[in-house]
Amino acid sequence: MDGGSRTLEIIRRIGEAAPPPVQLSKLLVNPGQVFFSFAVNETDWGAGVRALVLLGRAGGNIRFVSEQMDGNGVLRWSLTLDQAKGEEVLRIFEQPELAKSLADVAWHRSVAVLSLYPFNGDPGVAGHLYHFFRLSGIDILATTASPSVISCVIDSRDMEAAVDKLKHYFSLP
Question: CB count, 10 Å around CB of 102?
Fold first, then answer.
């Protein structure tokens, strides 16, 4: 078999402990965030809209937002805001008229958003990221991707170690 063959490369990769590094141009870190997630049933998606309107009125700077629909018609929202607004945002979610329409409300007082560029829709980048975090024991609270970036939310206690390891695990300038 030719030493440069695709089959030989696949066989080598199967035995690797970790995927080979991916070249990225930038790692952006947004620390000092508060994380909220909540779910709304398809019969009351307006509750999610009401929550976002109230957040807008409170002047919260939303840094990360993601929504996902499950197979049962439940829409789950995940978002981060600047920590300075955390208590105010928590009071919004605790308002009785809103709280009765939301399910599975969760929040974390201190998180960081890590964004890797350029993502370019390459599933290898996401695979590397998830593999790295799993091996490092770092829980991902939420993730989102666009054609140019993949972002994830992690607990701020893991941020420094995650950034240091990411810089070595991925090929970053």
Answer: 20
Q: Measured in Å, how far apart are the chain's first and last C-alpha atoms?
A: 36
Query: Does the predicted model carry a pTM greater than 0.85?
Result: no
Distances (CA, A) of 10 to 1, 13, 147, 167: 13, 5, 26, 25
Question: Which three-class secondary structure state does DSSP give residue 66?
Answer: strand
Q: 77: closest CA among 126, 37, 123, 34? A: 37
Helix (H, G, I), strand (E, B) or coil at 134: helix
Residue predicted with more confidence, 126 or 115: 115
Domains of the chain: 36-107 (3.30.70.260)
Q: What is the DSSP letter of 147?
A: S
Radius of gyration of the chain (CA): 19
Q: Is the dihedral of CA 119, 125, 131, 132 positive or negative?
A: negative
Per DSSP bridges, beta strands 150-155 and 103-117 are: antiparallel
d(Cα 44, Cα 98) in Å, to the nearest integer? 11
pLDDT digits (tens, 9 = 90+) for 71-104: 888 889 999 988 888 888 888 889 998 888 888 8
